[in-house]
Amino acid sequence: MMFESAELGHKIDKETYKKAVPALRAALQDAQYDLKENGKIPVVVLVSGQDGAGKGETINILYEWMDPRFISTLAFSAPTDEERSRPFMWRYWRALPPKGRVGVFAGSWYSSPIHDRIDGGMSKADMDARIEQINRFEAMLVNEGALVLKFWFHLTKDGQKRRLKALEKDPKTAWRITKWNWDRLKTYDKLQDVVGHVLRMTNTPWAPWTIIEGEDDRYRSLTTGKILLEAIRQRLANSAKQFTPVAPPAQPNIDGRDVLSELKLNRKPITKADYEKQLAKWQGKLAELVRDPRFKERAVICAFEGSDAAGKGGAIRRITAALDARDYQIVPVAAPTEEERAQPYLWRFWRHIPRTGRVTIFDRTWYGRVLVERVEGFCAEADWLRAYSEINDFEHDLSDSGVIVVKFWLQISKEEQLRRFKEREKIEFKRFKITDEDWRNREKWDDYHQAVCDMVDRTSTGNAPWTIVEANDKNFARVKVLRTICERVEAALEAMPGAEGVAAAEKSGKKKKKG
């Protein structure tokens, strides 16, 4: 990214500024009201730049010029303990503005990788991986209807020195300048190299950067306001969602065989005695694993999907029976609330991501986008087609941060489902489990069958593979679920750096106690 055009000494005189501001303020407020009325577009504004380049002043000006009821300012500094115990993007997802509002980010998902790269805490390869993650995240926001505006306020090295001195000299702003700011000035050249690379790699058609010279307050504020206004007006004029290209729908296999048709659903049921033995074994193993000292650095997400009446609830109860109630959360997923519909569809799942040392169980999941929403026509084809890659990105972010993602599809035969439906209607305390919607879904059995096969084919990854559970026999299904979780957690703990040393120390400690 070239900075030459932001080093020309741009200035706006006082009279021109005073004359332009009233009309700009009125237009910005009108645009806000139109955004609210439209109700489909969130506006995400990133304010970044060098120390002393006017980031804070610009945010204050925008807050002064615009209606504060429909704008929020979100400032990010070093992550808290709570934020460090979750994936990198968690705190930014939680801060996204809802549709119809403007969210201004002071510090953003760019701050940490830039600072970490300058300080030597992040390799170039790791930074490039983070850049790719950011590009895909911003593409998702735009595809979900957001307007993403990214401003970088630039100063020359001499200009930054002048700005810092001016701020330090003014009693009203002196508190903002510390030794840290002057030390950062020494890394100016390195910052330029890193920022140039980041801006160049993230200057995408869907979320481009705007570089503004930051030395003159009036020029910076007026330019930012006008660009913001024009972008909102253009987006409102074309309020339809913008879509990036997606892979076409998968075609059914020509021989009729797929991951569901090949399941052995009518296997011989396991005996009650064997079931109780296996259940106790794997519940005990799970309890042991989550109490392992190494698990404090990991977390588990169990994602349950399946045919109606396939036994998800029963399997979940057998998991929680092995856990301390303080260490897990069950998230039942139904139709999104009004608050959730105002956000990207993955937002309501990001908000429930567990911190390290915890387990979260989703009863229905983010896969609703490629299952019920696809089959029932609740979203456009382009929405569910792009969801495959967005879900893969989401799960990659989770596993990359130490979360063990265990996904289950519980499958029963159409005949077994009918038997269970009728049984539920007869039993008083089970009647709530059967609804008219369950009966309607049976009529679309084949459509759901194809959607499930596509889902598995496109989202069963190395870090988050699908486990398809033959669930005609509930006891077999419950044991398979528990065994799979234990095997995944144990493998993840054994793969951790230093795991062998920890295991050896634990064995040594046990021997000493016996002695």
Give an overview of the whole structure.
By secondary structure, this protein is α/β, with parallel strands linked by helices. It folds into 2 domains: 4-237, P-loop containing nucleotide triphosphate hydrolases (Rossmann fold, 3-Layer(aba) Sandwich); 272-508, P-loop containing nucleotide triphosphate hydrolases (Rossmann fold), CATH 3.40.50. Helices cover 51% and strands 12% of the residues. It has 21 helices and 10 strands. It has a 5-stranded parallel β-sheet, sandwiched between helices. A 5-stranded parallel β-sheet has the order 7-8-6-9-10, sandwiched between helices. It is elongated and about 85 Å long. The protein starts with 13 loop residues before the first helix and ends with a helix. The model has no long low-confidence stretch (mean pLDDT 91).
